Amino acid sequence: MTRESAPIVAELGRPETAEETAGRKAAASAAYRSSQTFRSLIAALIVTVGLVAIIVFIVPRGEPATPASVDVAAAAANVESSLDRAAIVPDLGDEWRANGAVLEGGSPSVWTVTLAPAAEDERGFVRLAQAFDAEASWAATQLKGASPTGTVNIDGRDWDEYSISHPDQTGNISYAIGIQAGADYILLAGSRSATSTAQFAATLTAQIDRIANAEEAR
Q: Does the entry feature the keyword Transmembrane, yes or no (predicted)?
């Protein structure tokens, strides 16, 4: 087809030149490729979402994993063997679970057991700390300088009672009680109520008595 017989382009009012024809075709090709790329992205996104949905529905989720249990008795036996001293082993029963049990070195050495309520709908914690060859002054350092506000009698023994004004400064500890047992100082500190803490302390009475009596017999 000669230039004279080429169709007149309305926008130009004349026939296209060869360069204009080539440019128009190149622009059309680019627009087509762009639309195909966009369609491919949409298709890939749809496929990805579909695969995720399938995985969510077919993969069994089950129940959350149960935290590994802490063998407090075995850890206490190691403490007794290494220090040749009696270590308190709390009776967890059905009310408590142990989150940790460790002997912290230093002066003094401290046998620490961290407990939480066994019931899923209960919150808070109690930390049992047995400081070997320590007195009440040690507890004050653990509680950021808090002093006893009085005593509470539990099973015939008077425990020092600490009320914490700023739990955010004591690792969320809002209440604590402590007692001297022979050469050791026993501290129960945490975020449980005074009643709950006293009930737990009552389960330790026999062991505290044995520690105190053993020290007196030396």
A: yes
